[in-house]
Design a protein that fits this description.
Chain A is mainly alpha-helical. Among the domains of chain A are: 63 residues, no CATH class; 169 residues, Cytochrome C Oxidase, Chain A (Up-down Bundle), CATH 1.20.210.10; 140 residues, Cytochrome c oxidase, subunit III, four-helix bundle (Four Helix Bundle (Hemerythrin (Met), subunit A), Up-down Bundle). Chain A is 66% helix and 2% strand. Chain A is globular and about 80 Å long. The relative contact order of chain A is 0.10. By secondary structure, chain B is an alpha+beta fold. Chain B has 2 domains: 129 residues, Sandwich (Immunoglobulin-like); 77 residues. Classes of the chains: A mainly alpha, B alpha+beta. At the A-B interface, helix 4, helix 10, helix 11, helix 12 and helix 13 of A face helix 2 and helix 3 of B.
């Protein structure tokens, strides 16, 4: 088979269906990645227009261009869209598109999940845009502090759009994160051990784990606030034992890591692009991985620096101030590693390099002002002023947008297969760079002169009128620059001439394929021996196209074949079949949307209905996986034969579950934190009375836990010995039912809208009940699968997945119900 | 020092709300911190800029493992770790030291007042004149430390008099205590500095610092 025929065959197998149906049913990472990028760019343009409206209002003193009501919606939506609908989806899109190529594999670990995530993102984001068009957009600021954002300050529907729309969108962040982690750990080229991964993969691995640990507190916060708004559960109402500070903690537990979640992918782009532009290798690969990991950990220890002015005890202030400056060390280390990389190379001034230099100039200033505001006394003065506005625009635009544009121009020849044609890009760079500093540099000073953020007009005689006019002019210059970039990219996609493959002479695998790449990414899966495989072997692209790697023969079955590797060594371990195009992801997203629409419109009957739909879809989704017979080793080419993925003890689905449960566990931990926080720090505690469990409930609780814990182990063990799993499964089901009954007793013993204590118990009980129900459904599913012959001593993976979820349900039932009953049991 | 630098930096600007025109010890200490940090930040920024420009004007003579090790020593260990850690540690210690000085410590001179933020007004009470309440204007004696107990009647607000001290939030259900002091009698502009809905921009108040006689008169109900 020659390279062209191989290409056609693989394209037929991996490509989308023809026509518009293809877009709705595609699960291919190239399509999904591009769709993410295009939608994120659209949201960026919308939020950019909002920014222009804000600057128009503030350009002249006493302006009556918009009133306070509209202005509050404008800045709330500008921040919300930029953070949730632009920044995160943009790097997710780029990663979804590039990651399989850089790792030398054919697609992401869970193709249907990426598609599902995309549709959740699009639908959730559209909800927010709709609210804006209808004039009922969220209006209490992007961090939504209650009681202002709750029914007290915002009785209308505005806040609900934020809480529900953003939570809907977060599904895509979580699913993309699970996807990215599992792909990096299990799907790589043969021989790509962890230390030979492209540095970008390390950045994204750490970012993805950070998403899984940072987003759940905010998702929990949004759920609690929505429950308060919809059903009067008083988590944040001080007179009923709630505390608005709980929201601040949950929000910033997310909000601070979020800043690094946005910065690190861009830093990963810099670490990838800069060495190529400097014609050398990255200085200190291992140091950078360590620094990024350190950032990942440290960024969770400084959320309180957003709350210095809320009355934190002063020892706390000192601790969080020190932690906030400490985080500048790994950031500084990266900056100096990059400068050192340029020193040791021979830098060339291409357009991506220009943007990276723009990044240095801007981000360093943002980092320095960041250290300033980590100093508590200075924070007391600058907090909530335009000094902060200027600071975080330097960090986010300088540290995220500029490197991302560098990345887009760097990979543009890869996306389009063309050479850049006009020189619009250079003009656009200068417009954006000068416009940006014109907009924001002097605003630092306006902040020090007392200009608060979020004021809806500038007073005459305030002393900031001149600065604001300059800022508005700068803002419009910058907007022209961004418009030119979008035009430039459009022009280059459409009309530029064919360019050479790998124009930058880069060493990483994404350049080892034709541009634009085929849907299958790798015509055959190569073996790599270093971090720059294309520098070791310039003929590698040819060899890959000729099918000299693994899986070079497209199967007649038309199945999407790829290969899983051992996590650390990168040795091929299993042959995997990926699912094909399907309408399931978009249907699932629509049904999931029913949950959110039901809450939003207060059509509460729709919520359980949609939940049933989601369960049904999930069962259908999972049913198509697996195999009903044991298979032998299968040839993957080059004399290697591998077992099929269905016979893996810990299949990708197990790893995916593990990382989903990591996020879930953080959410549960945040819930326990919230409970402890209200218990110890909120005014108006203790509640009128504590819930006391009856002996029957305690027995159901402990007995259920023992049975559920033992049952699934019995079933797992029996399956491995080729015995019958039925006794174990039935014991497990009984145990879970007992746990469910125990959790129900908590709900029965309390009223949801009494004291915040009771409301918290409802959520704890509901959380346990939910997970017990999930485990029950999974265990029942396993029973059916056993009857249909999907399980055997070799095909143990599904049982292992269920065991994980069942164990998790047992753990949260023990901890959650234990915490709920503890005050009532204490003497 | 602050007194000499500031007029040069912003001749002609309105300074009613300016944190860099301090009129009390807390704001003064923070303004000094700001100017020192600005100079330090400018120096570090210049250093980075020079290093970048130099990087473009040279090329590695003898690339290889030995050069890589040397670069790693210079850039990662000396600059990335050594330099950043030293600068940040020094700054943090100083920042914490200043922070300690701003704390509301008890003393015989201290005056206690209460401030309650509401949408969109401020009400003030006085420990030395029980039952006395003012709205929109907080009266204090000049030259004496004043502890403001800050509370909220509805949503989160923030009490801020830029020329006297930093800000502290009014959180429902909690009382936060902020130490302020005005060195000289006069009116000082105050702001609410936490977004609170449509009336936020106009959510202001005034701090009126009296001389000794004026303060006595105010306490007697004549102010």
């Amino acid at each position: 088979m020659n390279a062209l025929r191989r290409h056609r065959e693989l394209e037929r197998i991996w490509g989308p269906r023809p026509g518009w149906r293809g877009m709705l049913t595609t699960v291919n990472n190239n399509d999904i990645g591009l769709m993410f990028l295009i939608v994120a760019a659209t949201f960026f343009s919308i939020a950019g227009v909002l920014a222009m409206l804000i600057r128009a209002q503030l350009a002249t003193p006493e302006s009556v261009f918009v009133g306070p009501e509209v202005f509050n919606q404008l800045f709330t939506m500008h921040g919300t869209i930029m953070m949730f609908l632009f920044a995160i989806p943009l790097f997710e899109g780029l990663t979804i598109y590039l990651l399989p190529k850089m790792l030398g594999t054919r697609d992401l670990a869970f193709p249907r999940l990426s598609a599902f995530g995309f549709w959740c993102y699009l639908f959730g984001g559209s909800l927010l845009i709709f609210s804006m068009v209808a004039g009922i957009a969220p209006n209490s600021g992007w961090f939504m502090y209650p009681p202002l954002s709750s029914t007290l300050g915002t009785p209308g529907i505005n806040s609900d759009f934020w809480l529900l729309g953003i939570t809907f969108v977060e599904i895509s962040a979580i699913s993309a994160a699970v996807e990215i982690v599992v792909t990096i750990l299990l799907y790589r080229a043969a021989g790509m051990s962890l230390d030979k991964m492209p540095i970008f993969a390390w950045y994204m691995l750490i970012v993805a784990v950070m998403i899984l640990t940072a987003f759940p507190p905010m998702i929990l916060g949004s759920i609690l606030l929505e429950l308060e708004r919809a059903f009067g559960m008083p988590f944040f109402q001080v007179e009923h034992g709630g505390d608005s500070l709980l929201w601040l903690h949950l929000f910033w537990l997310f909000g601070h890591p979020e800043v690094y979640i946005i910065f690190l992918p861009a830093a990963g782009v810099v670490s990838t692009v800069l060495p190529v532009m400097a014609r050398t290798t990255l200085l200190g690969y291992g140091w950078l991985v360590a620094a990024v990991a350190a950032l990942g950990v440290l960024s969770f220890g400084l959320w309180v620096h957003h709350m210095f002015t809320t009355g934190i005890p002063h020892m706390g202030l000192a601790f969080f101030s020190a932690a906030s400056t400490l985080v500048a060390v790994p950031t500084g280390l990266q900056i100096f590693a990059w400068i050192g990389t340029i020193w040791k190379g021979r830098p060339e001034m291409h357009l991506p390099m220009r943007w990276i230099l723009g990044f240095f100039a801007t981000f360093v200033i943002g980092g320095l002002t960041g250290v300033m505001i980590a100093m508590v006394p200075f924070n007391f003065q600058s907090h909530d002023t335009y000094f902060i506005v200027a600071h975080f625009h330097y960090v986010l635009v300088g540290g995220f947008v500029f490197p991302m544009i560098a990345g887009i121009y760097y990979w543009l020849p890869h996306f389009t297969g063309r050479k850049r044609f006009f020189r619009i890009g250079e003009t656009a760079f200068w417009l954006v760079f000068i416009g940006f500093h014109g907009t924001f540099l002097l605003l630092h000073w306006a902040g020090l002169l007392g200009m608060r953020r979020r004021i809806d007009h500038v007073d005459a005689g305030s002393g900031w009128e001149g600065i604001n006019l300059i800022s508005s002019v700068g803002g419009f210059v910058m907007a022209m620059g961004f418009a030119l970039i979008i035009i430039d990219i459009g022009v280059n996609v459409a009309v530029a001439s064919r360019g050479p493959r790998n124009p930058w002479k880069a060493g990483t695998l994404e350049w080892a394929m034709p541009a634009p790449s085929g849907a299958y990414n790798m015509a055959s899966i190569p073996t790599v021996r270093s971090r720059d495989p294309l520098h070791d072997d310039p003929d590698l692209p040819l060899r890959i196209a000729r099918g000299e790697g693994y899986l070079g023969t497209p199967p007649a079955s038309g199945l999407r074949e790829t290969m899983m590797v051992e996590m650390s060594s990168g040795r091929p371990s299993h042959k995997i079949i990926f699912p094909g195009n399907s309408a399931m992801p978009i249907t699932m997203a629509v049904v999931t949307g029913g949950l959110f629409m039901g809450m939003l419109l207060k059509w509460y009957w729709l919520v359980p209905l949609s939940a049933l739909g989601v369960i049904g879809m999930a069962v259908w989704w999972a049913w198509g996986l697996g195999s009903r017979r044991d298979e032998g080793l299968q040839d993957v080419g080059n004399g290697l034969a591998l077992p099929p993925g269905t016979q893996s003890v810990n299949p990708p689905g197990w790893w995916g579950s593990l990382f989903t449960l990591l996020a879930d566990g953080v959410m549960f931990g945040s819930l326990l934190f919230g409970y402890a926080f209200l218990f110890t720090l909120a005014p108006n505690w203790p509640p009128p009375e504590w819930l006391r469990p009856e002996q029957r409930d305690l027995m159901l609780w402990l007995g259920g836990a023992v049975l559920a814990f033992g049952g699934i182990r019995l079933a797992d063990g029996a399956l491995r010995r080729e015995g019958t799993p039925w006794p174990g499964l039935l014991i497990g089901l009984a145990g879970l039912a007992g746990l469910g009954a125990a959790a129900l007793s908590v709900l029965r013993g309390t009223t949801h809208d009494g004291h915040a204590y009771e409301a918290t118990l409802w959520v704890l009980g509901g959380y346990v009940l939910f997970h017990v129900a999930v485990a029950l459904i999974m265990m029942a599913f396993l029973c059916v699968r056993e009857s249909f012959g999907y399980l055997s001593a070799l095909r143990i993976g599904e049982a292992r997945v269920v065991r994980l979820w069942s164990d998790y349900a047992v753990a949260v039932a023990l901890l959650g119900l234990g915490a709920a009953w503890l005050p009532g049991l204490a003497p | 020092m602050v007194a000499t630098v500031t007029p040069l930096a912003l001749a002609g600007c309105e300074e009613r709300l300016s944190t860099v025109h301090p009129a009390g010890p807390a704001a003064d200490a923070i303004a000094v911190l700001w100017w020192v940090m600005l100079i330090g930040a400018a120096a570090i920024f210049a250093l980075v800029a020079v290093l970048l420009v130099m990087a473009f004007r040279r090329s590695e003579e003898h690339p290889g493992a030995e050069a890589d090790a040397r670069h790693e020593r210079i850039w990662i260990k000396a600059m990335g770790l050594g330099f950043t850690l030293t600068v940040l540690a020094a700054l943090t210690v100083w920042g914490i030291y200043i922070g300690e000085r701003l704390l509301p410590r008890p003393g015989p001179e201290v005056v206690s007042v209460g401030a309650t933020g509401a949408q969109w007004t401020w009400r003030f009470t006085y420990a030395d004149a029980p039952g006395r309440q003012t709205e929109g204007v907080l009266h204090i004696p000049a030259g004496r430390p004043v502890d403001v107990g800050i509370e909220s009647a509805d949503v989160i607000h923030s009490f801020w008099v830029p020329r006297l001290a930093g800000k502290l939030d009014a959180v429902p259900g909690h009382t936060n205590v902020l130490r302020i002091q005005a060195d000289a009698p006069g009116d000082y502009a105050g702001l609410s500095a936490e977004f609170s809905g449509p009336g936020y921009t106009g959510h202001r108040f005034t701090v009126r610092a009296h001389d000794e006689a004026g303060w006595d008169a105010f306490l007697r109900g004549e102010g």
